[in-house]
Amino acid sequence: QVQLVESGGGLVQPGGSLRLSCAASGRDFSIDVMGWYRQAPGKQRELVAQITSGGSTNYADSVKGRFTISIVNAKNTVYLQMNSLEPEDTAVYYCHSIAILTGLNYRSYWGQGTQVTVSS
What we know:
- Helices cover 0% and strands 61% of the residues.
- The chain is mainly β.
- Strands 2, 4, 5, 6, 9, 10 and 11 form a seven-stranded mixed sheet that branches. The protein has a four-stranded antiparallel sheet with strand order 1-3-8-7, with no helix packed on it.
- A hairpin with a 6-residue loop joins strand 4 and strand 5.
- The radius of gyration is 14 Å and the shape is elongated.
């Protein structure tokens, strides 16, 4: 099993910045992909950004140029730097990981979610 623990959410004014962190822990695993999804009230969960252990990234069009995802493989930790935040970014942000377990078993894991609210 792999556990994902998120931190860094909160309330910020429009135009402000926040940094989310997500650390993966467990036994006998390695990371294939880590990323962030978000879900606003009444909307479906959507991909925000993801990064492979090799550093390849993918972003939603709505956050390109404003958000940056990075990974520290030695710490199994992914970061999401969010700049120029807009009220439309308000959502619960969920960390997601695809981990490689013993026997090359790929498993998907989710964090518990952290609230990001952009409001004046």
